[in-house]
Design goal:
The complex is a heterodimer of chains A (107) and B (179).
Chain A lengths: L2 H7 L4 H9 L6 H11 L8 H13 L3 E7 L2 E6 L1 H21 L7
Antiparallel strand pairs in A: 1-2
Chain B lengths: L1 E5 L7 H13 L2 E7 L3 E6 L5 E7 L5 H10 L3 E6 L2 E7 L13 H36 L4 H35 L2
Antiparallel strand pairs in B: 1-3, 2-3, 4-6, 5-6
Classes of the chains: A alpha+beta (107), B alpha+beta (179).
Chain lengths: 107, 179
Amino acid sequence: MDQRIRRIYAPMSESGFYILLCLQIPNHGYGIARQVKEMTGGEISIGAGTMYGTLSKMENDGLIVFYGEEDKRKLYVITELGQEVLETELKRIERLYLNSKGEYIHD
Amino acid sequence: MTETKFRFFTIADYEDEEIWLRKMHNEGLKLVKVIPPGIYTFEECEPEDVIYRMDFSNNEKDAQFISMAQDFGWEFVDKMIGWLYFRKPAEEADGEEQLFSDDESRADMAAHVVKTRLVPVAIIFLCIVVPNLLNAVNGKMSGLSGFFAAVFGILFVIYVYLIVHCGLKLKAIIEENRK
C-alpha cells in the first residue's frame, strides 16, 4: 500500500468503508446501497451520487475492479489492494473499540 | 399545457435551484426542459411534493450515472450544459434524500464545479475580457473603440460579479462540508 492510498483511505469515510466491506462479494451500486441499509438498520443510507463517485474513485485507485454485468448494471469486486486497505481499517476500528472499553493493545 | 419561466441561477446556486423546482412542483408545475441561460419549461400537473436534485458531471459518466440514479429511484428529467436534473416524490424518498449522502462527496461536487466551471470562467476573464477592456480604454475613445470599451466594461462588471459571487458561495459550501 503506497503513501497516496494510505493518505486517502486511512481512515476511510463511513460510506467508503461499507462499500468496500460489501464488495468482498461481487455486487453493483444499488445492491450495495440496499445491503448497507439493511445491515445498519437503516442508519446508513448511501446516495446515488456518493455511490457512483466512490466506486469510480476506488476503481481508479485499484481497490476494486469491474467484475461483470448483471441486467446492465456494473458489478465490482474487491482487489488484493482493496482487501489490504479494508483490513487496515478493520484493525483501526477494532483498536478504537477495545480502547473505548478501557482495554490496552498488546502486540 | 406548458408554461415557460425565466430564472437565472449561477453555477453556485444549485441548492436554491433545487428548492425552487420543488416549490414549482408543489404548485402544480413539473419541470420538462431547461435551456441556458435559465429558460425552464414546465408542464401542468397535480401539485405534489417532489424532491429535485442536481448533479454536475462530465459527459463520459452521464449514461452510467443516470442509470445508477434510476436504480435508486430517481427520475432523470433533463440535462443542461453539465447539469443533470433528477426528481423523486418526497414520500418515496429517504427523508430529505440527496444524491450525495455525505459531507465529503458534497464538498467534492462543489470542488468539481470550481475546477471545471469557475476556473475556466476566470481564465476567460483574465485572458480576454481584461486585455480587451484595457485596449479599448487606451484607444481613442471615439466611434468603435468607445463602443468596445462599453461592451467590455459591461462584461467586466458581469464577470467580476459572477466570479466573486460563485467563488465565495462554492467556497462556503466546500468549507461547510469539510468542517
